[in-house]
Amino acid sequence: MVNAGGATATGVSVTLSENDPYITFSDWQQSYGTITSFDTVQIADAFAADVSDTVRDEHIFDITVTMTSGPAPGRVWCRWRRMRRISSSARTG
């Protein structure tokens, strides 16, 4: 997470959501705490998802990423959707 703004961001959190029968997030929310201006915070293994064994190759799923900061309920400062294509090689291992 990068704070590219000119002020410190407090209470930073990121939530992932989806509406797809082939993927379920088992870890969908992460708190990044306070991020000072122009600083970066990395959290290893921040999110986790389970992908169904029955998903077709090249299936595209849609993930919504919502980033907030400040005291609850927080200020939404970024929301975007990411469409991702998955292949059978990504499911193995």
Walk me through what this model shows:
This protein is mainly beta and 93 residues long. It has one domain (9-91). 4% of the residues lie in helices and 53% in strands. It is built from 1 helix and 6 strands; from the N terminus they run ββββββα. The chain has one helix at residues 88-91, and strands spanning 9-18, 23-27, 29-35, 48-51, 59-69, 75-86. The strands form 2 sheets. It has a 4-stranded antiparallel beta sheet with strand order 3-1-5-6. Strands 2-4 form a two-stranded antiparallel sheet. The radius of gyration is 15 Å and the shape is elongated. The model has no long low-confidence stretch (mean pLDDT 79).
How is this fold's topology laid out?
Elements: E1 9-18, E2 23-27, E3 29-35, E4 48-51, E5 59-69, E6 75-86, H1 88-91
Supply database-style keywords.
elongated, four-stranded antiparallel beta sheet, two-stranded antiparallel ribbon, about 5% helix, mainly beta, about 90 residues
Write the element-wise H/E pattern from the N-terminal end onward. Answer: EEEEEEH
Gyration radius, rounded? 15 Å
Low-confidence parts, pLDDT < 50 over ≥5 residues?
A: none
Alpha plus pi helix count: 1
Record the strand order, biggest sheet: 3-1-5-6
Distance between the termini: 27 Å
Structural class: mainly beta
Main sheet, how many strands, which sense, barrel? Answer: 4 strands, antiparallel
Beta content: over 45%
Helix content: under 10%
Mean pLDDT: 79
- What's the number of domains? 1
Number of strands: 6
Shape: elongated
